[in-house]
Amino acid sequence: MAISNGELVETETDGDDKIYHWSQQQVHPTYLMTLAVGDFAEIRDEWQGKPVTYYVEKGREDDARRSMGKTPDMIEFFSQSFGYPYAFPKYAQVCVDDFIFGGMENTSTTLLTDRCLIDERAALDNRTTESLVAHELAHQWFGDLVVIKHWSHAWIKEGMASYSEVLWTNHEYGADAAAYYMLNEARSYISEDSSRYRRPIVTHIYREAIELYDRHLYEKGACVYHMIRAELGDELFFKAVHTFVQDNAHKTVETIDLLRAIEKATGRNLQFLFDQYVFRGGHPDYKIAYSWDGDSNLVKLTVTQTQAKENGNGSKSTLFDLRLPIGFSFAKEGDEPGKASLQTFTVRLHEREQTFYFPLPEKPQFISFDVGNRYLKTVTLEYPVAELKAQLQHDPDPVSRIYAAEALAKKGGLEAVKALSEALKTDRFWGVRAEIAGQLASVKLDQAFTGLVEGLQDSEARVRRAVVEALAKIKTLESYKALKPIVEKGDASYYVEAAALRGLGTVAASNLNGKSKEEKALKLLKSVLEERAGWNETVRSGAIAGLSKLKTSEAALNLILEYTAPGVPQALRLAAIRALGAISTGQSNLNVERILDRLEELSGESFFLTQVATANALGQMETIKAVSILQALADQTPDGRVRRIAEEAVQKVQKNAGQDQAVKKLQQDLDQLKKDNQELKSRLESLEAKAK
After folding, report:
1. For residue 90, what are the domain limits?
2. 0.90 surpassed by pTM
3. Computed over its alpha carbons, how large is the radius of gyration of the chain?
4. Cα 198 to Cα 394: distance, rounded to the nearest angstrom
5. Quick check: is 532 in a domain?
6. Which of 138, 564, 675, 681 has its CA 20 to 30 A from that of 634?
């Protein structure tokens, strides 16, 4: 079967051969041409009479329906959202193996990796496939119907395709789920900004265009669309989107065309927003301090832009000039959680530090900064414990409740642990419960463990996964005992099971009981590798990651090396390659040489994903010998992305290799002191609680 763009005009049989004639009538760029040939099963659907088809390996028809079956509803949703009916004669999705992307939005015929196909068990808590399907479909408007004029403006299409994942999430799963999705888009960009580099979204400074396809382009681009929506409101935002698509259908665009469409549709000039977030790098980092003057009935709020200082990545930050809503709530104990009404004031934030005074009828229960959390930023709340507890319980916005949980965890103490433990059981939204699990683990008190363990009974798999990951950070005999049954018996969710396997290795490696727990963990992880092959090798990859935590174990290294051999399922092999870097930091010099030899062999393979995994593994090593292999990989690869990853890995190795053994010993001693201190603090908190 041969599948291409446009419409199938005819099929001819010529002896043993078949000739397919596809015709693409609408103008489109050459990078969106495709030809997929294979022995596929064809699953037929439709939208308003147009064929909607899914092509997968024979025998995976049920997985195809499960993974892509919402496509007709999505086509209807995006046709309405973008103000332009789906423009092409059909929409096909073809799932292929050895595909290096998640998907590629070729006009009317999207290619997807076959790893996106989910089985019945994966469907329990896998929303990634649904988001991928929505993302690539949205490109049929943003990217295929409206085409970018130059790669430097690719955020117009990639930002909207990423934001379309948020729009669909809101449509299908509600406002809380969309808000949490948006938060994680922002976090993804912020991680790249703080750990790799900062750049304007629109820039002409790059070596190869593919380098622009990063988290600034996708996730920060999505955040910009969200901020445009915040500035305009829903009605005007979608009016502007409709205008942009309708005016530029079958044409090429750059960023100025989006600004013009917004102004044409709404009368608003959003140049100020684009100047701050699109044409320069960075975002504001806000610190908010609060106090109440009971004599004057005044709230004093001090907002500081902390990014005005020198950044860790060497670039100088600039102050942002934004108008943000500040909300005050007068919720009372006993009010329905998450239903508080807010009295809102809009303030202009444009200086390094500003203090505002708000006259209120009574002391507010809590303060919500940037009501609705529409603007891209980081937030540090310096509120008293009482206000943070009230916000965690009553703020209607899930992101604000997450910020309150973060601030409470930083406060520490038994009161914070109790509030977080209660919210872990009672918060109505799974995303907040999952975040609370991570925050509880950061409070260095033994009582946090008790609150966490209850979360293992949560009905939502994504919360259980977060709890398991949190337990792995605690590294005590109790957390080992909590994780072990999940490893032995499994979980309804692949992802929870994989997290437990990773966690067991982490906890076992922390010298709980000499070498006995490590040896037992090794035996368990080995049995999983032998017995639990399955969907996308998610579970066995978790076991490999668990082995990589046993950094001083030669037996663990030998097992990992076995799974880097050709013929091992691709997902599992890539996990094993990456794990070589993680385990290398505790191995003997002789074993480090074995790892280097294996990674040098692997660096000679041409497959993109193998090269990336190899470069990532080498980048985790602490020997300068890894540098020559990385430099050879950077010189030989034809792919600009691999070259950049390898060059960044060289810098990591040089930094890691500079840490001598004395420094590592000091770090280990410090970790032990922290552990001893945690035990003392936990006892003290318990004694004080009893005394009260």
Report:
1. 1-141
2. yes
3. 27
4. 36
5. yes
6. 564
